[in-house]
């Protein structure tokens, strides 16, 4: 009798798990993180780009490779915070695909905000392949979140219920099974190989208000802590570690000149104290790169694909030295 | 004991103190009432009622209160 | 470790596993280790405060036990025993006072002084009261002194009740920790039911209502009239969902281990008076105050001297009530202060205390009014009237509890009356408070569910027994519905979002 009760309890749990799996399948859309994390854990690259949405739109690995003669990939993504970047590098190493060099794109704004559970706390965790890295990531970042975000990740996407038919169709398709991102293309953004998001020209001219002015007193403990962790990990693994800041529109730069200069000084100090090479590309002249805001998507600094390819050449040349 | 019941009826009328045995358990007497009763009993019978005595067992019925009074009188 | 996190659930599961694997005699050790591990996750420095309280109250109880083995010895050592109590109370309440109220006192005597950054150890208001209550119980021989320091440490630190109560009694808890607890799936099911129901109230109702409450009370200058009333009503929802929901989680977790904690809520919004409210809301705080402050103070020599003088001046009836009323006001002053440091908390306490005192002082007057008007005080109509009246009075008290300060509370009360207008129902204000139309619908539906269940309980139904009687598919459907309603309806994007009472 007792065994029957226990069996029933187990069956109930299985039922819950089945419902959860179905809801996850129906609600959780594809994301570039899935593709990026798959690439990073299954292919070996010489250079691994990590960082935020800026690297996502501004760095074309294929163009960079033409300059460097190496093989690189772009694992920088929107809402990727340092904790996430740290674990992406760890994933690459722990799955046997250690890169020779990691290039971290430093966006000052990301160090002043916290990766709060909200819009996509699980978006990286969910896409990690089953691995020891995933377990450490869970213990480090996910475990302290509300339990229903963790047990029922679809809850974060519950407002997307209208997209369920489309999501299911995509997930049953070949492209998704091959870790493709074709369904993520939009009118303004098309994914190119190796994680590069090619944006069409057309600035959102009212986007200036979204630009975060750097204030070193607002830098959180976590980003600095994980930056040091990342630098230390790369050193341990014999990985060359270098940092870049990508150039923002000329208009943005001059409007917030002192804040950008402060950001530059701040990070130069941090990098210097850790012996890490740092290049702030905001020093590029107009002759070297036409940094009019018209060549960007927004004042924050997300480049159009056209500008990104021009910049990637410059970046490639820098990385060759 | 009749004197005690008279005291109870004066402090909190409308209850059949001769038969009711759940004065505390049913919330008929609240803390104010209990303390009023204690104050009267202390004066009338010249006894000392400490906080330890204020338990349902001693106040659930008029007879329980009377038992307590008798016990405290001897001390 | 937040009670809301996945980590906490994993922690409870791990502790439960250990608890039912070890020999029955060692179960209490598993709970002790788990409780200290739980508290340690908050920081080593904070643990020192818990150890201090545990040690001082343990030592005091042992001293009381050694000096009072019989009535004669106790009488001989009366002064010494009183001194032990005095020192222990001073040390424990002293620490609590300094950490919680020092800044307020400093500001009183030296306005403009810089507040000191005292750490407030988690749950200090709760475990201090629980352990001091134990010492007094030993003094009054309501419980045996615990000789084993580790068993005592478990009583003080038992992790489910550590952060927000309920404030437990040694006489009811100690024996439970000594009993063997056998694994029982039905008990686990019941515990999980309760935990899930608690989380539902917290995530779906409390967090949701809290968004609008925060907006209205933070930006109070923008609002007034009906919006403030809505704020206060939603605060009722938030506070109940958070605290009572929190209690359901706490009591449910304890139940998993076969430990029964005292109930802290009993359909408080069905109260017929403020007195009744405090018998149904945060019950263990009320009973603690009654047993350890109200009765001792009311029965003290100076209070009885005051009583004699009152009877002399005001006559027998009023004179008898006055000292009790005074004690009551003092007790509620302490209740108010317990909730926080600041004038608004003092007023909150006094508001409750004075209302209760007035009600008791005017009982003869009310009785004559009923007689004259031929209204039956026990009629259904009167019962409903009393409930509504009490609900309004309680909601008024929330102004003091939730507003940023006493002056803001008073300002908001004035604005409620002066800026009253029904226009806010049409002009979009309600949708600018952080809640969408669907949020209001979810709140309404949730409140209705809670109301119906509360009504059943108020009428004596045992909801759990009713659920147990249902056939398996119906029970499972209920559980699945409840479980999946949390991720479906839980309020996302809530800043902070922890339990309100966990910061006391």
Structural description of this entry:
The complex is a heterotrimer of chains A (321), B (75) and C (504). Chain A is of the alpha/beta class and 321 residues long. Chain A has one domain (2-320): Rossmann fold (3-Layer(aba) Sandwich). Chain A is 47% helix and 9% strand. Chain A has 13 helices and seven strands. The model of chain A has no long low-confidence stretch (mean pLDDT 91). Chain B is mainly α and 75 residues long. Chain B has a single domain (2-74), classed as Orthogonal Bundle (Non-ribosomal Peptide Synthetase Peptidyl Carrier Protein, Chain A), CATH 1.10.1200.10. Chain B has four helices and no strands. Chain C has 22 helices and no strands. The longest helix of chain C has 34 residues, at 185-218. Chain C starts with 5 loop residues before the first helix and ends in a 15-residue tail after the last helix. The mean pLDDT of chain C is 92. Chains in contact: A-C, B-C.
Compose a concise summary of this entry.
With 321 residues, chain A is of the alpha/beta class. Chain A is 47% helix and 9% strand. Chain A has a single domain, classed as SGNH hydrolase (Rossmann fold, 3-Layer(aba) Sandwich).
Biggest interface, CB < 8 A: A-C, 28 and 26 residues
Level of helix content of chain C?
Answer: over 70%
Q: Report mean pLDDT of chain C, rounded to a whole number.
A: 92
CATH topology of chain B: Non-ribosomal Peptide Synthetase Peptidyl Carrier Protein, Chain A
Biggest sheet record of chain C: none
Instruction: State the end-to-end distance of chain B.
Output: 19 Å
Which percent range describes the beta-strand content of chain B?
Answer: under 5%
Taking pLDDT < 50 over at least 5 consecutive residues as the criterion, the unreliable ranges of chain C are none
Give the helix/strand class of chain C.
mainly alpha
Q: H/E series of chain C, N to C?
A: HHHHHHHHHHHHHHHHHHHHHH
Individual helix count of chain B: 4
Computed over alpha carbons, the radius of gyration of chain C is 24 Å
Query: Which word captures the global form of chain B?
Result: globular
Portion of residues within helices of chain B: 55-70%
| CATH architecture level-2 label of chain B | Orthogonal Bundle
CATH class of chain B: Mainly Alpha
Q: What key attributes describe this structure?
A:
heterotrimer; B: 75 residues; mainly alpha; Non-ribosomal Peptide Synthetase Peptidyl Carrier Protein, Chain A; C: 504 residues; 3 domains; 22 helices
């Amino acid at each position: 009798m007792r065994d029957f009760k226990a069996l029933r309890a187990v069956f109930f749990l299985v039922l819950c798990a089945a419902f959860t799996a179905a809801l996850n399948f129906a609600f959780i859309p594809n994301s570039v993180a899935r593709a990026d994390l798959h690439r990073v854990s299954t292919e070996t690259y010489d250079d691994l780009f990590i960082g935020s949405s800026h690297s996502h739109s501004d760095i074309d690995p294929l163009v960079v490779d033409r300059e460097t003669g190496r093989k690189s990939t772009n694992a920088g993504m929107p809402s990727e915070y340092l904790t996430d970047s740290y674990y992406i590098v760890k994933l690459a190493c722990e799955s046997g695909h250690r890169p020779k060099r990691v290039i971290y794109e430093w966006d000052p704004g990301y160090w002043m905000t916290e990766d709060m559970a909200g819009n996509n706390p699980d978006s990286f965790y969910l896409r990690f392949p089953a691995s020891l890295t995933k377990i450490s990531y869970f213990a480090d970042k996910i475990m302290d979140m509300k339990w229903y975000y963790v047990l029922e990740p679809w809850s974060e996407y519950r407002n997307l219920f209208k997209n369920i038919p489309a999501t299911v169709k995509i997930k049953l398709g070949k492209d998704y099974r091959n870790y493709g991102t074709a369904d993520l293309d939009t009118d303004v953004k098309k994914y190119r190989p190796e994680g590069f998001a090619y944006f069409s020209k057309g600035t959102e001219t009212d986007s200036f208000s979204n630009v975060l002015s750097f204030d070193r007193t607002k830098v959180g403990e976590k980003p600095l802590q994980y930056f040091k962790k990342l630098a230390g990990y790369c050193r341990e693994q014999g990985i060359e570690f270098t940092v870049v800041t990508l150039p923002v529109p000329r208009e943005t730069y001059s409007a917030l000149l002192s804040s950008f200069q402060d950001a530059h000084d701040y990070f130069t100090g941090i990098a210097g104290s850790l012996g890490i090479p740092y290049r702030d590309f905001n020093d590029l002249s107009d002759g070297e790169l036409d940094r009019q805001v018209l060549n960007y998507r927004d004042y924050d600094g997300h480049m159009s694909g056209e500008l990104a390819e021009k910049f990637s050449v410059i970046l490639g040349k820098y990385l060759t030295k | 004991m009749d004197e005690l019941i008279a005291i109870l009826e004066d402090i909190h009328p409308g209850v059949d103190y001769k038969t009711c045995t759940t004065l505390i358990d049913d919330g008929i007497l609240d803390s104010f009432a209990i303390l009023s009763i204690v104050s009267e009993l202390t004066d009338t019978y010249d006894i000392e009622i400490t906080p330890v005595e204020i338990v349902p067992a001693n106040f659930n019925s008029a007879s329980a209160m009377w038992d307590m009074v008798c016990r405290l009188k001897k001390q | 470790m937040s009670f809301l996190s996945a980590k906490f659930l994993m922690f409870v599961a791990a502790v439960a596993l250990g608890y039912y694997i070890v020999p029955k005699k060692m179960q209490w050790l598993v709970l002790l280790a788990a409780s200290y591990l739980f508290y340690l996750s908050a920081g080593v420095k904070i643990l020192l405060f818990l150890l201090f309280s545990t040690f001082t109250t343990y030592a005091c109880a042992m001293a009381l036990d050694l000096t009072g083995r019989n009535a004669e010895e106790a009488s001989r050592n009366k002064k010494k025993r009183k001194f032990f109590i005095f020192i222990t109370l001073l040390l424990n309440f002293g620490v609590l006072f300094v950490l919680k109220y020092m800044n307020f006192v400093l500001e009183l005597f030296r306005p403009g002084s810089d507040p000191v950054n005292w750490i407030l150890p988690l749950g200090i208001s709760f475990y201090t009261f629980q352990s001091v209550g134990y010492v007094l119980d030993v003094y009054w021989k309501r419980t045996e002194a615990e000789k084993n320091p580790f068993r005592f440490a478990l009583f003080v630190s038992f992790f489910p009740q550590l952060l927000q109560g309920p404030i437990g009694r040694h006489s009811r808890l100690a024996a439970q920790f000594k009993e063997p607890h056998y694994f029982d799936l039905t008990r686990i099911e019941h515990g999980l039911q309760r935990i899930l129901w608690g989380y539902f109230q917290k995530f779906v109702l409390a967090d949701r209502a809290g968004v609008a409450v925060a907006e209205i009370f933070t930006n109070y200058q923008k609002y007034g009239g009906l919006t403030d009333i809505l704020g206060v009503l939603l605060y009722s929802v938030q506070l109940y969902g958070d605290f009572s929901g929190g209690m359901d989680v706490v009591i449910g977790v304890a139940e998993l281990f076969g430990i029964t904690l005292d109930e802290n809520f009993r359909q408080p919004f069905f109260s017929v008076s403020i007195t009744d409210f405090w018998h149904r809301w945060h019950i263990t705080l009320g009973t603690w105050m009654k047993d350890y402050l109200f009765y001792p103070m009311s029965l003290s020599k100076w209070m009885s001297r005051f009583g004699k003088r009152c009877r002399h001046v005001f006559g027998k009836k009023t004179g008898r009530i006055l000292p009790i009323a005074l004690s009551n006001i003092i007790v509620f002053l302490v209740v108010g202060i317990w909730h926080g440091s600041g004038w608004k908390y003092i007023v909150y306490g006094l508001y409750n205390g004075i209302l209760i005192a007035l009600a008791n002082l005017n009982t003869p007057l009310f009785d004559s009014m009923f007689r004259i008007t031929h209204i039956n005080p026990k009629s259904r109509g009167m019962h409903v009237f009393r409930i509504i009246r009490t609900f309004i009075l309680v909601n008024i008290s929330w102004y003091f509890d939730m507003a940023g300060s006493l002056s803001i509370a008073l300002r908001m009360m004035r604005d409620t009356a002066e800026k009253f207008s029904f226009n806010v129902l049409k002009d979009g204000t309600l949708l600018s408070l952080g809640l969408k139309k669907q949020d209001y619908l979810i709140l309404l539906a949730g409140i209705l569910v809670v109301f119906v269940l509360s009504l059943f309980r108020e009428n004596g139904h045992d909801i759990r027994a009713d659920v147990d009687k249902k056939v398996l598919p119906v029970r499972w459907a209920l559980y699945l519905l409840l479980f999946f309603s949390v991720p479906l309806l839980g309020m996302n994007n809530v800043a902070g979002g922890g339990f309100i009472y966990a910061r006391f």
